[in-house]
């Protein structure tokens, strides 16, 4: 007799649009459940945050924190990482995916910060995106987390949550980002990125969403949510 396997939801089609009346309660409930809507990357300066976010592309925060725990006591400024050099930097970050390319980008970014920004992390999108390894998502994370700007960085977790819940559906991250910015109530906008990413990381997971423990179960438009209540 074959085993019964629940269907996988990592590639769940977009749900129906969440009604406007449910958007505010959706964020109210997330806010009541998530006490600390902050990044799980470890950092003590804007520069450390920038480097950690660059390293986190296609990698887990846990792997990045392991690497930076060893790196930052040795080098945590543009000058000190540049002095460390690309090969030595690789030794610190080799547990992270794509570490060769990331080491090149970090070195280039450090040089650009020294040459163009007085070794200071810029507080605007144009300058941030001029740095090696910094795209729109990374810039949004830095602008939001370091400078308190109401930006929305859409990673795989947020892309999934937006589509699955019906909060913001779209075929690519830019569409989802734009719809989220349009729909999120102003009072929640600053912390919305972290509410959604933490919800996606620990509750609305890709293959086995924990619908039975979901604080926004009633607002969520995922048509198969009842099948996952026992998880």
UniProtKB/TrEMBL annotation:
* Entry's Gene Ontology BP terms: base-excision repair, AP site formation
What domain of life?
Bacteria
- EC assignment: the record states 4.2.99.18
First-level EC class: lyase
Cofactor(s), by name: [4Fe-4S] cluster
- Reaction catalysed? 2'-deoxyribonucleotide-(2'-deoxyribose 5'-phosphate)-2'-deoxyribonucleotide-DNA = a 3'-end 2'-deoxyribonucleotide-(2,3-dehydro-2,3-deoxyribose 5'-phosphate)-DNA + a 5'-end 5'-phospho-2'-deoxyribonucleoside-DNA + H(+)
Domain (HhH-GPD): give its ranges.
55-202
Q: Which NCBIfam families match?
A: nth (TIGR01083)
Q: What is this protein called?
A: Endonuclease III
Origin species, per record, is Psychrobacter frigidicola
Gene name, per UniProt, is nth
């Amino acid at each position: 007799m074959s085993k019964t396997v629940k269907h996988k939801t990592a590639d769940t089609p977009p749900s129906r649009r969440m009604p406007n009346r449910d958007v505010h309660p959706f964020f109210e409930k997330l806010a009541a459940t998530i006490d600390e809507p902050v990044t799980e990357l470890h950092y003590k300066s804007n520069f450390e945050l920038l480097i950690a976010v660059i390293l986190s592309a296609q990698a887990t925060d846990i792997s990045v924190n392991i690497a930076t725990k060893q790196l930052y006591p040795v080098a945590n400024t543009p000058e000190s990482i540049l002095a460390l050099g690309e090969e030595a930097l690789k030794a610190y970050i080799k547990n992270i995916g794509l570490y060769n390319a990331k080491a090149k980008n970090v070195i280039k970014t450090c040089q650009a910060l020294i040459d163009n920004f007085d070794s200071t992390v810029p507080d605007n999108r144009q300058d941030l995106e001029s740095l090696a390894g910094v795209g729109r998502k990374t810039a949004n994370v830095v602008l939001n987390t370091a400078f308190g700007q109401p930006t929305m960085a859409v990673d795989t977790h947020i892309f999934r949550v937006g589509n699955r819940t019906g909060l913001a559906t779209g075929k690519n991250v830019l569409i989802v980002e734009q719809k989220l910015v349009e729909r999120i109530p102003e009072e929640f906008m600053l912390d919305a990125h972290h509410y959604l990413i933490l919800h996606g990381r620990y509750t609305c997971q890709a293959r086995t969403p924990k619908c039975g423990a979901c604080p926004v179960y009633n607002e969520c438009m995922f048509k198969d949510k009842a099948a996952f209540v026992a998880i």
